[in-house]
Amino acid sequence: MKDNTTIWFLHGAFGMAVDWRFHTKIMAAAGYATRAVDLWRFHNCQSLTLQETAAALNAEVAACEGRHIIVGYSMGGRIALHAILDKKSPWFGGVVISAHPGLADEEEKRKRRESDAEWSLRCLHTPWDELLEQWSAQDVLRGKKENGWGDRRNLESRKGPVARSFVQWSLGMQDDLREDLAGNHMPLLWLTGENDQKFSTLANKTCANLPAIQHEVFPDCGHRLPWENVEGFCHRLIRFCDETLGLTSPQGNL
Questions:
Q1: What is this structure's pTM?
Q2: What residues contact 200, with CB distance under 8 A and at least 6 apart?
């Protein structure tokens, strides 16, 4: 495979590793090996914090040969940020999609922990189809039809780990990573959708004046941009990987 490099994909909340199946096929055709990570397995036997999950993933990746690039969407993007900034980071580059760098205000953190605790309880007690409808009805998640997602009904058998993730991986439990990102020197691409104003504005403020981080806004896409424009996202990812590995010269923005 290309330059002995593996691309590791991290899904979002209520997501699955199979969500990346179309993306991994396109990346394979471009010569890249891929691994779609099942994040729920980090809650199978114990509950790991964001920091502990990132450290566990990094240890797993460090045991593999070659170079590694991490790609994380939303919740997976927050885990990816912790993995990238970990002292034992094995990553050569990273792509963060529709992710939050962390809350600075303690009251906002408290409110988010309370909200996520409610979602955790819903995971355990609300009929699964009804729960999925409630999750997708949030304003930030509205957009074009997603292309290639796995069947969320298959997650019902793993509602325990999903419920635990809302507590342990809550945005209210996350560090504010903006200061740490200022010291990052790893190539990092931060993607948001044009129709996702909240996260585009947040990413723009986060990445301002940080030369190692490039923020790009995908046209006519929302929060779930990797599935709203599968080919466009993959082509941008391929270009980022090629440039990061020195296989091609940097080009202009989209």
A1: 0.94
A2: 192, 193, 194, 217
Q: Are 58 and 50 in contact (CB under 8 A)?
A: no
- Asked whether 218 and 190 are in contact (CB, 8 A), the reply is no
- Give the chain's domain count: 1
Residue 251 belongs to a domain: no
SS3 state of residue 193: strand
State the Cα torsion 149-199-190-64 to the nearest 10°: -50
* Angstrom distance (rounded) from CA 244 to CA 24: 19
Residue 7 located in a structural domain: yes
Domain span at residue 61?
A: 2-244
pLDDT digits (tens), the chain, 254 positions: 787 999 999 999 999 999 999 999 999 999 999 999 999 999 987 789 999 999 999 999 999 999 999 999 999 999 999 999 999 999 999 999 999 999 999 999 999 999 999 999 999 999 999 999 999 898 888 766 666 777 888 899 999 999 999 999 999 999 999 999 999 889 999 999 999 999 999 999 999 989 889 999 999 999 999 999 999 999 999 999 999 998 875 554 44
Q: Is there a domain that residue 199 lies in?
A: yes
Inside any domain, residue 23: yes
**Any idea what DSSP says for residue 47?**
P
Q: What is the CATH number of the domain that holds 141?
A: 3.40.50.1820
Whose structure tokens read 């991994």?
24
Compute the C-alpha angle 38/224/174, nearest 5°. 60
